[in-house]
């Protein structure tokens, strides 16, 4: 019996499909070029489609087609890099309330190292802090579905195809979030890991377990 060719994982952004060298026709891969992050906005450089929400940003369909590849894409570097930045005097670190209110990142609820603000989270004072490993995704709302119907999990960092009959409280490994983007750093607040490159950010291992969820509330 002939040995089945090994399946490879496509490394193009927005694809993530598996393929073999013998079954990789032109046009089988749909993908994006490099992403751009600025003041809380996420944008694909190729099609200029954008979103404030990271989950919705990743769901924007790829705009380019080609062959699958195992080579990681070379991401475009920001063109406008500031030269010879002027050091900020220590005395100006303690900014006034007016400065914080005028900061676009603080007003949108994103992490801001300049003013020490944290992302806005609901019920942040309602319960003692838990480690991300102890956080579990709630069971998805009950609705009439075929327990044998394949569904795609929408929890951040998962994206696996599952059947409801196999779903349980530790079936999904995911990031509770939120994702944090500041200057050139990307990371997850839940596991406190931050990296500079987008492809490194996409490979940060999920840190919590819970139910698969094909239709998350948020």
What does this entry look like structurally?
- The chain is mainly beta.
- Among the domains are: 8-66, btk motif of tyrosine-protein kinase itk (Irregular), CATH 4.10.1130; 150-210, btk motif of tyrosine-protein kinase itk.
- The protein has four helices and 14 strands.
- The chain has helices at 54-58, 97-102, 104-108, 198-202, and strands at residues 8-9, 18-19, 29-31, 35-38, 41-44, 50-51, 64-66, 151-152, 161-162, 172-174, 179-182, 185-188, 193-195, 208-210.
- The chain has a three-stranded antiparallel β-sheet. It has a three-stranded antiparallel β-sheet with strand order 11-12-13. Strands 1-2 form a two-stranded antiparallel ribbon.
- A hairpin with a 2-residue loop joins strand 11 and strand 12.
- The radius of gyration is 20 Å and the shape is globular.
- It starts with 7 loop residues before the first strand and ends in an 8-residue tail after the last strand.
- Residues 121-127 have low confidence and may be disordered.
- This is CHORD domain-containing protein.
- One of its GO terms (biological process) is defense response to bacterium.
- Keywords: Metal-binding, Repeat, Zinc.
């Amino acid at each position: 019996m002939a040995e089945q060719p090994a399946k490879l994982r496509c490394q193009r952004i927005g694809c993530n499909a598996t393929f073999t060298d013998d079954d990789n026709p032109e046009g089988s891969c749909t993908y994006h070029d490099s992403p751009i992050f600025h003041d809380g906005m996420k944008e694909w450089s190729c099609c200029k489609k954008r979103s404030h929400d990271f989950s919705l940003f990743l769901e924007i369909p790829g705009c380019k087609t080609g062959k699958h590849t195992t080579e990681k894409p070379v991401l475009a570097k920001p063109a406008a890099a500031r030269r010879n930045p002027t050091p900020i005097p220590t005395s100006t670190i303690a900014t006034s309330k007016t400065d914080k209110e005028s900061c676009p990142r603080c007003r949108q609820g994103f992490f801001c190292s300049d003013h020490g603000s944290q992302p806005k989270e609901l019920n942040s004072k309602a319960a003692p802090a838990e480690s991300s490993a102890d956080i579990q995704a709630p069971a998805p709302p009950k609705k009439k579905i075929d327990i044998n119907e394949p569904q795609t999990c929408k929890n951040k960092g998962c994206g696996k195809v599952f059947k409801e009959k196999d779903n349980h409280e530790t079936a999904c490994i995911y990031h509770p979030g939120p994702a944090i983007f500041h200057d050139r750093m990307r990371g997850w607040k839940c596991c406190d890991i931050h990296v500079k490159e987008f492809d490194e950010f996409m490979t940060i291992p999920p840190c919590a377990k819970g139910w698969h969820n094909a239709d998350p509330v948020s």
